[in-house]
From TrEMBL, chain A:
<dbReference type="GO" id="GO:0040008">
    <property type="term" value="P:regulation of growth"/>
</dbReference>
<dbReference type="GO" id="GO:0046983">
    <property type="term" value="F:protein dimerization activity"/>
</dbReference>
<keyword id="KW-0804">Transcription</keyword>
<dbReference type="GO" id="GO:0006355">
    <property type="term" value="P:regulation of DNA-templated transcription"/>
</dbReference>
<dbReference type="InterPro" id="IPR044293">
    <property type="entry name" value="PRE"/>
</dbReference>
<dbReference type="Pfam" id="PF23174">
    <property type="entry name" value="bHLH_ILI"/>
</dbReference>
<keyword id="KW-0805">Transcription regulation</keyword>
<protein>
    <recommendedName>
        <fullName>BHLH domain-containing protein</fullName>
    </recommendedName>
</protein>
<keyword id="KW-0341">Growth regulation</keyword>
UniProtKB/TrEMBL annotation, chain B:
<dbReference type="InterPro" id="IPR036638">
    <property type="entry name" value="HLH_DNA-bd_sf"/>
</dbReference>
<dbReference type="InterPro" id="IPR044549">
    <property type="entry name" value="bHLH_AtIBH1-like"/>
</dbReference>
<dbReference type="GO" id="GO:0006355">
    <property type="term" value="P:regulation of DNA-templated transcription"/>
</dbReference>
<keyword id="KW-0539">Nucleus</keyword>
<dbReference type="InterPro" id="IPR059002">
    <property type="entry name" value="IBH1_N"/>
</dbReference>
<dbReference type="GO" id="GO:0046983">
    <property type="term" value="F:protein dimerization activity"/>
</dbReference>
<feature type="region of interest" description="Disordered">
    <location>
        <begin position="79"/>
        <end position="100"/>
    </location>
</feature>
<comment type="similarity">
    <text>Belongs to the bHLH protein family.</text>
</comment>
<dbReference type="InterPro" id="IPR011598">
    <property type="entry name" value="bHLH_dom"/>
</dbReference>
Amino acid sequence: MSTRRSRSRQAGAGRITDEQIDDLMSKLQAILPEARLGRNDRVSAAKVLQEACGYIRSLHREMDDLSERLSELLSTTEMSSAQAAVVRSLLM
Amino acid sequence: MEAARSSQRARAVIGREKSDSLSFLDLGILTVDLAGFDAGRKYCGLVRRLSAAISTDLEVSEGISMAVPNAVGESVLMGGGERKRKRGSEPSAPLSKWRTEGEQRIYSSRLIEALRRVCQSSASAPSASSSDHVRSCAVRKAADRVLAVSARGRTRWSRAILSGRTLKHRVRPKGSRPKPVISAIVARAAAQRRKTPALEKKTRVLGRLVPGCRKLPLPSLLEEASGYITALEMQVRAMSTIAEAFSAAGSASLPPIHANPM
């Protein structure tokens, strides 16, 4: 049991390769909106991380704004189950 | 029987050393792969009770979700809702699921239900929660919770949200949480091989932004961040669509017009 543990521990250390990190970085870069980075050329890891942080922050801000808007709409519109059906039909 | 022995061994190991996530991992793979689905289910029940007892910040729960192969993982982690193993029925790019219209529709209907509950609760206690800020916070929290549920608990950020928003809105209870020391050191050493201090700092900032990912090594953090960003994008899309629908429904209370907002 201890041998397997030490073996897998060593394998765990080697499993996280530079290649894997680069791969994940480019995947993250692909997700970020194109305006932030030129998608064709590879940008530095620091830039990707920075843009990711900025993007998440802006998404959070958008979420807060939307929550505020929705809560106002909720307060003004009396939400009955009939209206829930109406809204649902508008969505689907 | 193999299954009984595996789960017994799992129990013994869990009892002895809760913090060694690597042997946990091994047992996970062993139980699910060798002893089959039913043993995997038993193991899953064990795992879930254990994860409920320990904070989700532990690498234990991360190890489980990463050890069990995806197709089986879905059934195992969901407590065996499906009787068959669904190998290969998972989308190979889990990120793309957030972009599908179906997923957004599911999220929207769940969110509307949650919003209705928020509305009812704020209506029944008008003095307490009549302030706009409280209500919008409640809306935001409900939206995040529904999003986390839609992730089916397979990502760390979703588990962190469901276990009570350890980062944003609450002060975290100061840790008396056992940390998996061995694997944390190993993972950190491996991921930190050639990181400059600038990169280190940005990594930490990113870790703070994604729920439940503060002490995560870089590769896992990147993965979680990608999933989190795509999920957030879907959340924003769904909520803006719902807001449009609400204002349309509010301004004109007509019989439903079948419009396709997407």
